[in-house]
Write a structure and sequence with these properties.
Elements: H1 9-19, H2 35-45, H3 50-63, H4 67-72, H5 75-82, H6 89-104, H7 113-117, H8 124-135, H9 144-154, H10 164-172, H11 180-193, H12 212-216, E1 233-242, E2 247-252, E3 263-264, H13 277-283, E4 291-292, E5 297-300, E6 305-314, E7 324-327, H14 338-350
Parallel strand pairs: 1-6
Antiparallel strand pairs: 2-3, 2-7, 4-6, 5-6
Helix pairs in contact: 1-11, 2-3, 2-8, 8-11, 9-10, 9-11
Length: about 350
C-alpha cells in the first residue's frame, strides 16, 4: 500500500487541516464523530445548501438531542420543524429511520454502507457519506461538489448527468490509504470554497499541479452540461374555506407524492392547461358561494412552476367537510409548506 505522503490526497488533506469549514455537525481536533449528528446533517443537506441547514440542524438537536428522542417525537412535530427545508419526503423518512434505529437496532446506527442502505431515506451517496465521516470506512460519497472537482481534475467530456457513474469511479480511485472521512469532507470543502461553479480559484487549489483543467486553463468549462429543459407551468384552484367561528379548513396531503403528509388548503389537481367551471365544482370541499380572489399565487418546485387561483367561501353550520378547522392565528402550529403559506398570505390580504 502506498504511503500517505506519496498519495495525491496528502496535499489536499494538509490543506483541509488548515482550512476546513467550521460546521456545527463536523467533529474536529480528534473528537469522535457522533453518528446521529452525521446522519441528521446528511439527510438535511440532501438538495439543500449548507447555509440553509445550519439553523435547522441546531434546532433539531435542541429539540431531539438523540436518535431515541427523535424516534419518540410525533411525525407532525418533525414536519413542523422541517418547514422551509423542502422535499418533505426526507422528513418523513428521517422520522421513520429514527424509529427503525430505536425499535429494531437498539438505538445504535449501523457502521457500514450496506447497513445504512437498509434504512429508509438513505441512498448510495448518503450511506457512503455517513460510513466514511462517522466511522472512517473506506467509502467515497460523491455529491455535486465532488462531481465538479473530479470533472475538472480529469477534464471529463461526457455531459452531466450521464457522466455521474464515471465521476464516481474517478473519485473512488483517489481514495487515500487512511483518513477516509477527512478525505471525503476535504473534497467537499474544496468544491465549496475553491473549485466553485463559477470563477474557480485555481491559484489557491492544493490540487492545481495535477488538475488537467487548470493546466489547460479551462477548468470553469467543466462539468459539461446538457441544456436544461424549460420548466412547464401548471395551474390549479385552491379553497380558503372559513366557518362561522372564523377558522379555516385544512386537510392532510397523501403520504406519497409531492409535499406528502403536509397540511394544505383544499385544492384540485395541478396540471398544465387552464381549469374550468367543472373543475371548480369537482374540487370544492363543499357547495358554497365561492368568491374569486384577485391575482394568483405563484410558486416554483424543482420540476415545474405553479399558479394557483384562490377561491374564498364560508361553511354553513350543517357542513362537515373532511379535514380540520384551524384558527387563523394558529396556522403556524401546523406543518404548512411554503406554497400554502403563500396561499394564506394571499387570502388574508384580499379579504
Amino acid at each position: 500500500m502506498a504511503k500517505m505522503s506519496d498519495h495525491p490526497a496528502a496535499r489536499l488533506l494538509d490543506w483541509y487541516d488548515r482550512h476546513a469549514r467550521n460546521l456545527p455537525w463536523r467533529a474536529r481536533d480528534g473528537v469522535v464523530p457522533d453518528p446521529y449528528h452525521v446522519w441528521l446533517s446528511e439527510i438535511m443537506l440532501q438538495q439543500t445548501t449548507v447555509a440553509s441547514v445550519k439553523g435547522y440542524f441546531e434546532d433539531f438537536l435542541a429539540r431531539w438531542p438523540t436518535v431515541l428522542d427523535l424516534a419518540r417525537a410525533e411525525l407532525d412535530e418533525v414536519l413542523h420543524a422541517w418547514q422551509g427545508l423542502g422535499y418533505y419526503a426526507r422528513a418523513r423518512n428521517l422520522h421513520k429511520c429514527a424509529r427503525m434505529v430505536a425499535d429494531e437496532l437498539g438505538g445504535v446506527f449501523p457502521d457500514t454502507e450496506e447497513g445504512f442502505l437498509a434504512l429508509p431515506g438513505i441512498g448510495p451517496y448518503t450511506a457512503a457519506a455517513i460510513a466514511a465521516i462517522a466511522f472512517d470506512r473506506a467509502a467515497m460519497p460523491v455529491d455535486g461538489n465532488i462531481e465538479r472537482v473530479m470533472a475538472r481534475l480529469h477534464r471529463v467530456k461526457t455531459p452531466m448527468p450521464k457522466a455521474k457513474p464515471e465521476l464516481i469511479e474517478l473519485a473512488k480511485g483517489m481514495l487515500p490509504p487512511a483518513r477516509y472521512g477527512d478525505f471525503a469532507q476535504a473534497v467537499m470543502d474544496l468544491g465549496a470554497t475553491i473549485c466553485t461553479p463559477r470563477n474557480p480559484m485555481c491559484a489557491l487549489c492544493p490540487w492545481r499541479e495535477i488538475c488537467k483543467g487548470a493546466a489547460r486553463g479551462d477548468a470553469a468549462d467543466y462539468p459539461v452540461r446538457e441544456k436544461k429543459a424549460e420548466r412547464p407551468t401548471r395551474s390549479g384552484i385552491i379553497f380558503w374555506l372559513v366557518d362561522r367561528q372564523g377558522r379555516v379548513l385544512l386537510r392532510r396531503r397523501p403520504e406519497q407524492g409531492l409535499l406528502g403528509g403536509m397540511m394544505e388548503f383544499p385544492t384540485g389537481d395541478w396540471r398544465e392547461g387552464a381549469w374550468n367551471s367543472d373543475d371548480l365544482e369537482a374540487a370544492a370541499p363543499v357547495r358554497a358561494d365561492w368568491k374569486l380572489l384577485e391575482g394568483r399565487v405563484r410558486h416554483t418546485f424543482t420540476h415545474f412552476h405553479l399558479e394557483l387561483t384562490v377561491f374564498a367561501g364560508e361553511a354553513g353550520d350543517d357542513m362537515a367537510p373532511e379535514g380540520v378547522w384551524a384558527p387563523i392565528d394558529q396556522l403556524g402550529d401546523h406543518a404548512l409548506p411554503t406554497v400554502m403559506k403563500k396561499v394564506a398570505k394571499h387570502a388574508l390580504a384580499h379579504l
